[in-house]
Amino acid sequence: MLLYFGLMGTKSGKALRKETQCSLLPHDHYWISSKRIVTPDGLISGSVEVNGGVIVSVVKEEDWYKKQRGRVKVIDYGEAVIMPGLVDVHAHLDDPGRSDWEGFPSGTKAAAAGGITTLIDMPLNSDPSTVSPETLKLKSFMCPSGINDFPMTNITHIKEGLSVLAKYKRPLLVHAEVEMDSEIDDGTHNDPRSYLTYLKTRPTSCNQKLVIGYQEHKDWWFSEGAHVHIVHLPDATSSLDLIKEAKGKGDNVTVETCPHYLAFSAEEIPEGDTRFKCSPPMRHAANREKLWEAMMEGDIDMLSSDHSPTKPKLKLLSDGNFLKAWGGISSLQFVLPVTWSYGRKYGVTLEQVASWWSDRPSKLAGLHSKGAIAVGKHADIVVWEPEVEFDLEEDHPIHFKHPSISAYLGRKLSGKVVSTFVRETWCLEKANMLLMPVYLCHLRLKKGL
Ligand SMILES: [Zn+2]
């Protein structure tokens, strides 16, 4: 399910705004300026001209004064970074059916507060799991998903699905873990409050099974233009090696990982702290280092949040039983500062962040009007301050539904989102000026079209 925060319509931005009164912005035509704008041609100091929700020009500072002639509205962000809004290709909003876990209103508020301007809902925990056959075709699980309504797939299903998707030039997104017998809690495990006990139930060999599938069937996997995209890869071991091998041969395979695999490691997870349980699980610190290496070398293409919340009750925070607690990391609002904070020591650049979070994900989703600060693209923009640090404590304005289950609480992060623009809608200005749910804005716009 694709959720566009803004809506592609036929009416002008002005007409839409009168109908909806959604945006914080009173103008159709305006400029936003900064000393640091991330464009496909690198970092520039200058201004971005937006008219009717579309970027109509991008000018360097030296050309700016000639062009604007003092007649237009300007929002000057000084040294803050202007970057394309994030495109999150994997987030669970659990709506319809489990909106008490998250839901579109709180989920999209959190997204906007985190600089995400487009997200693709993974409908696993929704009830029903999908609203149309088309959306179901996009994603599959190779292990039991934990939700009966979303059954697992196997190599045969993938083979059949790929040939159909290839015709429509659509990627197949695969959760590439295979069930292991040891996942069943037969009472013979070690302490269930130990994260390492849980880790044993989902070893790296779970991921390797996909790769074995690839080796056995590579003659058809990528035939007829098929594109396989591996979601949330946690391993930098043999799975990644084989993905690299497939890429090296020219096969159309892409792969993403998630900020929590780059931020956390098995060794540091406290006993009984089930906020850290997710699937696939976070692995050891040495693996995390290798994942960063793969990011920096371009072997991993992009990032997604895999925001996967639930009700606090199901996290079993007081029992701390890793084998029984719900697996999923709540992160939607924090993925940008987390990527930046944990990536700085590896030398991550602003251009890389834009590539991992905007350019490549928008291409994967076929959203060619998004993903860059460039003429003709939608004005989906995040403005943020990479150098500003903040403590992520209980009193931080967190907009997803259940902040208490987020593993990021208590961390110091760097990179504060200042503003989020989604086409005609200015969603966020200074974290405390948030926002109508962008989702409601979306629905109201739709009604008017
Ligand atoms: Zn997921």
From TrEMBL:
Residues 81-125, 227-422 form the Amidohydrolase-related domain. Residues 25-80 form the Allantoinase composite domain. InterPro entries: ALN_composite, Amidohydro-rel, DHOase/Allantoinase_Hydrolase, Metal-dep_hydrolase_composite, Metal_Hydrolase. Pfam families: ALN_composite (PF24890), Amidohydro_1 (PF01979). Gene3D superfamilies: Metal-dependent hydrolases (3.20.20.140), Urease, subunit C, domain 1 (2.30.40.10). This is Allantoinase. It comes from Brassica cretica.
